Fold:
Amino acid sequence: MPRIPRNYIKTSYFHVITQGINKSYIFNYKEDILYYIKLIYKLSKEENIEIVAYCIMNNHAHILLSTENIVNLSKYMQRLNTRYGMYYNNKYERVGYVFRDRYKSEGIYSDEQLYNCINYIYNNPVKAGICENPEEYMYSNYKKINYDIKSEYTFLDIDNENAYEEIIKNYLKDNEITLNELTDCKRLLKELVILLKMEYRVSLRKVARLLHINREKIRRLYNN
Structure:
């Protein structure tokens, strides 16, 4: 299998949202939340992740983190939620999934977006009516931001056509090849298909559409 290339989304900041299955409460008590926070920091050191902001609610968590490699982000979130899922199932004597689907993430591309995201994360408990001010909430790493918030922050899942097109564009640029030339270069084409499928969870059907290549050819290339 070809190596997985470096991050092709040109940012090091990502807003991650993870949610309980069926939107159920998965952070029921103080000790559950504190255990998850402990894991957030412990695993961040092991995966070379910097934690910028977080807020843990009863049925979901927001984490704003920094990493130079999207692969580190994927490994970090997988380990974080797997470890907590094992803890949760053991404690409450249950089996099955704890978290809903895969985590969602969004790249942060400007200072304004970064500060608006931090403000959004810290104000989650305020909007939920849990407290009046973000500094009152126990389960975030609230820090006062001296920045004029000019617009309301809206989460845009990284799972969208524009994000994938940017990944492909940067991959082609870094390998000094056009999309038409890529069709005839089996090695690079396979590498890109694996990147989209394995790291960004893009279906082979969508990969074929994005690359304007026959789906059966993409499927054979991926499976061989």
Notes: The longest helix spans residues 70-91.
